[in-house]
């Protein structure tokens, strides 16, 4: 039974391997959701690693630190040491994931404080273990958020072939679903898959990805009669008269960007409607994509490294057409690339190389859908839109309206909040909506702490940049003892 709202806010511990200032779909979803929860009166703590994804490079202000405690947008962020590695190579990435599983508990667990609900975002798999343990120690409810179907997608992509490893990972996956008080998926296809494998339907909930309409909006994009920043378009490789096609996001094995390059080769043969393709981002497949550009000798493709989160809206606004591609893999019919919502919200015409649920949503939003990994179809769709500015303008208006009505991140975060209240068995009185100037600004790890309570908290939790100490503090030792003795106390 749900208890009435009280004075104490609902305490939520959110555990995730990925978080800003890293750029990516998981990072955006979780940061914006945490901010919305905090604005609605929840006491939110995020437990994550030192930023390094996808390059494996830790920013200077975090190097050598075992733990950092930050405050941003109304919630607290606790960062622990992580084995930083580029987003490539299974063995090293697995070590990175394992390192966070360990340090999130050993270095971060003591400092997270009490919790009513522990939310863990997967993938990766390994934080599921630390989340389960911390939920037990805190006597908190456990919510498992599923953003990708692991290990199934890696089996279909051919990354995993060892049957014993696959069976072990599937066992862990199902154990996590069973241990959770609730499972949250980002697509209906994921939910159907999980329920179809025996998890009770009432336990599995879909809360889609969405877009922050304050960041991605046609008001931030040029109208058809206006021109975007010439300097930015020049940086993206577009010349005067070019139709600029942009893909921005991960350059991984899931996106099929080699097919986009092959489509650009087809478009290079059309002198009537010149098209320039810009690929912006990092990932495990980036070198292979670059090699394909070189092999074909293309001058109508520009590849740029990943940009900061704040730069993304401007790059999207500079595009005439945006792309959302995925590989031709059966399980991808259940996936919905979250960037699609942001591109539509920004009023950009979108072409998706998609199937299944994502293709249906994009079609309803007025976008164009082509078969995945089909360069000729993709080139044809780009060529058609490049020649029809009026159609692009109509697509822009329809796409924004569709997302604003159905996929507003703030609305989805509040739906998520109500689920957490239900799982915890208590409701929270939502404060009157705060104005923008009352939201706490981000405090970098290097900022001085001025609040006495925060000073006590930070005194043993944050080391000067460059420190390489690996010894546990006394508080860490007692926390380890508490973990070791938990079974006896229980």
How would you describe the overall organization of this protein?
With 490 residues, the chain is α/β, with parallel strands linked by helices. The protein contains 18 helices and 14 strands. Strand 13, helix 12 and strand 14 form a beta-alpha-beta unit. Helix 8 runs parallel beside helix 9. The longest helix is centred in the last third of the chain and has 18 residues. The chain is globular. It starts with 10 loop residues before the first strand and ends with a helix.
SS class: alpha/beta
- Tertiary shape: globular
Helix residue percentage? 25-40%
Distance between the termini: 24 Å
Task: Offer a quick outline of the entry.
The chain is an alpha/beta fold and 490 residues long. Helices cover 40% and strands 14% of the residues. The strands form two sheets. The chain has an eight-stranded mixed sheet, sandwiched between helices. A six-stranded parallel sheet has the order 11-10-9-12-13-14, sandwiched between helices.
């Amino acid at each position: 039974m749900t208890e009435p709202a009280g004075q104490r806010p609902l305490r939520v511990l959110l555990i995730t391997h990925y978080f800003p200032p890293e750029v990516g779909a998981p990072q955006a979803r979780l940061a914006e959701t945490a901010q919305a929860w905090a604005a609605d009166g929840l006491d939110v703590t995020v437990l994550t690693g030192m930023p390094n994804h996808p390059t494996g490079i830790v920013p200077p202000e975090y190097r050598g630190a075992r733990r950092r405690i930050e405050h941003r947008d109304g919630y607290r962020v606790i960062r622990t040491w992580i084995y930083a590695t580029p987003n490539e190579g299974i063995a090293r990435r697995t070590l990175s994931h394992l390192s966070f599983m360990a340090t999130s508990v050993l270095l971060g667990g003591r400092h997270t404080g009490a919790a009513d609900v522990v939310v863990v975002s997967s993938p990766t798999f390994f934080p599921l273990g630390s989340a389960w343990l911390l939920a037990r120690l805190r006597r908190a409810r456990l919510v498992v958020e599923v953003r990708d179907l692991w290990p199934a997608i890696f089996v279909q992509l051919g990354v995993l072939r060892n049957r014993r490893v696959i069976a072990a990972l599937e066992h862990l996956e199902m154990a996590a679903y069973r241990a959770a008080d609730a499972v949250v998926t980002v697509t209906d296809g994921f939910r159907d898959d999980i329920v179809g494998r025996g998890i009770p339907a009432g336990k599995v909930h879909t809360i889609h990805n969405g877009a922050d309409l304050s960041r991605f909006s046609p008001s931030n994009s040029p109208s058809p009669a206006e021109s975007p920043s010439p300097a930015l378009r020049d940086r993206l490789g577009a010349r005067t008269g070019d139709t600029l096609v942009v893909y921005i996001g991960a350059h991984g094995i899931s996106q099929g960007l080699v097919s986009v390059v092959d489509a650009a080769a087809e478009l290079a043969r059309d002198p009537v409607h010149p098209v320039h393709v810009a690929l912006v981002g990092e990932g495990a497949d980036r070198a292979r994509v670059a090699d394909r550009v070189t092999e074909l000798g293309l001058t109508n493709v520009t590849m740029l490294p990943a940009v900061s989160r704040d730069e993304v809206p401007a790059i999207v606004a500079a595009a005439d057409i945006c792309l959302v591609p995925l590989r031709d893999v059966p399980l991808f019919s259940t996936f919905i690339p979250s960037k699609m919502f942001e591109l539509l919200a920004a009023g950009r015409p979108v072409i998706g190389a998609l199937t299944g649920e994502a293709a249906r949503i994009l079609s309803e939003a007025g976008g164009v859908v082509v078969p995945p990994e089909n360069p000729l179809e993709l080139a044809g769709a780009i060529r058609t839109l490049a020649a029809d500015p009026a159609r692009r303008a109509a697509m822009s208006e329809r796409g924004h309206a569709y997302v604003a009505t159905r996929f507003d991140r703030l609305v989805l975060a509040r739906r998520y909040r109500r689920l957490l209240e239900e799982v915890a068995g208590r409701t929270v009185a939502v404060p009157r909506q705060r104005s923008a100037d009352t939201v706490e600004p981000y405090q970098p790890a290097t900022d001085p702490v001025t609040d006495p309570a925060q000073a006590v908290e930070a005194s043993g939790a944050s080391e000067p940049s460059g420190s390489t100490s690996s010894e546990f503090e006394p508080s860490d030792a007692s926390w380890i003892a508490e973990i070791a003795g938990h079974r006896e106390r229980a």
